[in-house]
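Appendix B. Extra example for self-study. Work through it before the problem class; the solution is given directly after the inputs so you can check yourself.
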Amino acid sequence: MSEQSPRPSKPGKPYRRPQKDPVRFLAFEALRAVDERDAYANLVLPPLLRKAREKGDFDARDAALATELVYGTLRRQGTYDAIIASCVDRPLREVDPPVLDVLSLGVHQLLGTRIPSHAAVSASVELARVVLGDGRAKFVNAVLRKVARDDLDTWIERVAPPYDDDPEDNLAIVHSHPRWVVSALWDSLGGGRAGIESLLAADNERPEVTLVARPGRSTTEELLREEAALPGRWSPYAVRLSEGGEPGAVAAVKEGRAGVQDEGSQLVALALANAPLDGPDEKWLDGCAGPGGKAALLAAVAAERGAMLLASEKQPKRAGLVAKALAGNPGPYQVITADGTRPPWRPGSFDRVLMDVPCTGLGALRRRPEARWRRRPEDLEGFAPLQRDLLSTALESVRVGGVVGYATCSPHLAETRAVVDDILKQYPQTELIDARPLLPDVPELGAGPDVQLWPHLHGTDAMYLALIRRTG
Ligand SMILES: C[S@@+](CC[C@H](N)C(=O)[O-])C[C@H]1O[C@@H](n2cnc3c(N)ncnc32)[C@H](O)[C@@H]1O
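Solution. Structure tokens for the complete assembly:
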């Protein structure tokens, strides 16, 4: 018998080693870090990008694409999960998280970018071969081919319940927010469908990078001359960097004369600084100062008025960041590490007090694309006693006639009005000051006396501020 087979076997496809695409691979690494280590995308990404650039793997366009893939995938996770769930025959929680990350990255390329479908599928399958192996790459291929058959709007229509049947569920899937967050934002915003839809859509946009020219240390004119930037909308100290502007490369930022700061945060600090006050105006306190954005602006304004700022922060590491932010301030200031619920200073010591309390951060979802998925309604219960204690400290720390600013970067009513209402009942010798005139020219601030800023109305984070005067 001949050793040769009578019919030559059909040659199999030769094995081809998967090609590692540095952009997709980096985006996958970042998503894994966010999932496995609870890392923040905005902290994980920059060092990965820097390393890739140093290795010569990346140019600026690659970095922009990797950033878009990571942020877009995380923001749109709720919508993409619903789409993927309808294309696989088991519950999503039974799909391995790394497989789900490759799928979500693929779905984002297919439905959320201009990358052609065939390129999106083949790049994702190639990534799957590198990071998951050939077997699971076939699964990825099958799912993404199904997804590629329709566009985003068609998919959303298919997987979201009709608005009239369940408005919150519909908005949760259409705008990729957890349902409880949709509900909380809507409670705070009020109004009908158009407003909440604009807000949720704004949460999915990348925010502009805004700088603050710290008074006495730099001016907006200087920044506008030196950088590709536009004047801020509301704050006299703000400039908005043009798209792609790198704040880290701005000389004034490197030297601490300017900082990166959302205009909402600037407005809050300035409203407290400008609230009318009788009597001395010499001692200011920031009781929750880390990492120091508002403290640096307050200290600079205080310096111009001959006042001093005490910046206090509980976490030593964050107190270090405050010290860094304040270094070079032209007037007197002090940074201390202290628990604001057990203050080391004497009651009634300050003329102005800012309490920018720890909160869920539901007002800064534009900046933290993963935050909405990580937060739980139970977190509110965790913050509630601390927020009340810190506001009580603020009211104890201010002198009679002095002003307290209670601020959050969350619009959740449980963290804003509920805290202020509760605590003011315990401190009857206080009055709310109308904060609206202290944010001059800013429209749509509601019925007052407190103010709530919104991304879709003001282009800022959803900062909340109540100004309270001690009357006795
Ligand atoms: C929302 S952040 C403040 C942001 C800051 N005002 C800024 O503009 O950069 C809240 C800060 O309060 C700090 N913190 C938490 N518990 C505290 C406490 N018991 N006493 C003082 N600070 C506290 C947190 O570590 C965090 O740095």
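Self-check: The chain has 20 helices and twelve strands. If your reasoning did not lead you there, revisit section 3.
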